[in-house]
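B., you asked whether I could sanity-check this one before it goes into the benchmark set. Here's the sequence:
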Amino acid sequence: MNVFVTGASGFVGSAVVRELLDAGHTVLGLAHSDSGAARIQALGAKVHRGSVEDLASLQSGARASDAVVHTAFNHHDYSQFVQSCENDARAIEAIGGVLAGSPRAFVVTSAVGVLQKGGVADESTSLSQHPRSATERAVNAVSARGVRVTVVRLPVSVHGDGDPNFVATLVQVARQKRASVYLEDGSNRWPAVHVLDAARAFRLAVAKSLDSGTRLHAVAEEGIPFREIAAIIGRRLDVPVVSKPRSEAAEYFGSFLANFAGMDIAASSTRTRETLGWSPEHVGLLADLEQSHHYFAV
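And here's what the prediction gave me:
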């Protein structure tokens, strides 16, 4: 099968590309820069030039493929987060326009953070008013048009070698501020998954004949108390581990990261494991922080 992967040079996308190639598929990876194209070629995939804002390039990549995995999202400029969510919805609608009425699989990335809070969220939990829920509304729209689309929701922490995301940022902030901080009693929970386990969930979602609109959770750990994450970061950096009130969160973490540092969203993946026959195999987040060097390399 020839699979078109957007975000193919990114942290999650490149792991998905490797997983697909190892399973015997060919991959066409979207690249918007020369450096991204070089990374995709180094993985052993073919390069398709374009971007998530270039809808024509997305549609031509989809036409050339037997399935599409959409992992691209603008994680580089969170000051444009709402616009990035709207761009993501347009990209999904554009790709869906090509795939409508065909049996080709379309796997879209979302996040458990879009779900309503309270208890442990599962695959059927309702969407909140989070800006990123625009992604799933677009999925609903293309599903109604006859696209065989599946959503893979990622947890707050997707970790592993090369992780550039929230945990890596927490380490950077703790190093700069000379303290590792959690909010209040730090009992708020982050779900997590190793990037290689997440990649396998995407590959299985492509391979299985799933009903259109199926929601999957690539979640290995339902909810890790944030204070436990902060404690390991403090110990590894040899800085104090400190509780702060929520009123001081933005001062320490910055306005955007403060929202995630205080987020409490546990999420299960019981249905996903049963649906895909998926069982996470790689190291958990706390053990990764304890053992790894990539988070703490200067």
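One thing to flag: The longest strand covers residues 105-111. Otherwise nothing jumped out at me.
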